[in-house]
Write a structure and sequence with these properties.
Shape: globular
Bound molecules: iron/sulfur cluster
Distance between the termini: 44 Å
CATH class: Mainly Alpha
Helix content: 40-55%
Structural class: mainly alpha
Number of strands: 0
């Protein structure tokens, strides 16, 4: 995939400040309201956290959490997955759906990782050439393995940023220059916690259909406040 370098010149000074305030508020909110998911616990390995991000695409966190114990009880490292026939891997993934596609992606990624003792390249231009690595998984690897400030940007993070600041211009999240810059700016501090906070906030408060604006701690700065008839505003 083509790597998009974030260009912070795309953000105005006001937008940078506003997004920094969002980060601060989300971290406060997360400290009280964050979900206790097994891959967020200190005992979770980076292998587990990267695998989980492959599984989380188009799937609810609670659905992935339900298979977490059995899946990682069976597969403890990249080599375990790489050495497993696709049909067997598919059987493990059937409970969360899209099992053929997920098994193919995970198997390719695991084979690549096992050949490198679990160490992925830290250069996104090289990492992006690996099998099973689109932008989302690439960012997850760079975030969890190399400690880089990368956003786990999907429709949920995009929704929060676009409602709170302004809409993107391009349909494809991966290539919209403003959204890429905004999401990278959001996770410039405490990147792992900020990513998790944003995803939980999108799930609990800034929901796709009915955002709960009256319970939203950033509503006073949100440009979309008042645009949702089903959301109660105070
Ligand atoms: S005020 Fe409403 S639309 Fe804006 S961020 Fe909060 S929940 Fe989302």
């Amino acid at each position: 995939m083509r790597f998009v370098e974030p260009d912070f010149e795309r953000l105005s000074t006001g937008e940078k400040r506003k997004i920094s305030l969002l980060r601060s508020d989300l971290l406060d909110w997360f400290a009280v309201n964050g979900r206790d998911l097994p891959w967020r616990r200190p005992a979770a390995s980076e292998f587990e956290r990267i695998c989980v991000e492959v599984l989380l695409q188009r799937t609810r966190a609670e659905t992935v959490a339900a298979i977490y114990p059995s899946f990682f009880g069976t597969f403890g490292c990249w080599s375990d997955i790489a050495g497993t026939p696709l049909t067997v891997l598919e059987d493990h993934l059937k409970p969360i759906g899209l099992w053929r596609r997920r098994a193919m992606s995970l198997s390719g990624l695991a084979t690549y990782a096992a050949e490198r003792n679990g160490k992925f390249p830290r250069d996104p231009r090289i990492l992006g050439q690996a099998p099973g690595v689109g932008q989302y998984v690439m960012n997850a690897v760079l975030l969890f393995q190399h400690g880089q400030e990368m956003p786990l940007i999907d429709v949920n993070m995009a929704r929060v940023l676009e409602r709170y600041v302004r809409p993107r211009a391009l349909a494809d999240i991966r290539y919209d220059p403003w959204l890429q810059a905004a999401s990278h700016w959001l996770v410039r501090r405490h990147p792992i916690e900020t990513n998790w906070a944003t995803l939980d906030f999108a799930s609990a408060i800034c929901k796709a259909q009915t955002p709960i604006c009256n319970s939203c701690l950033v509503r006073s700065r949100c440009v979309s406040r008042g645009q949702f008839p089903s959301a109660l505003l105070t």
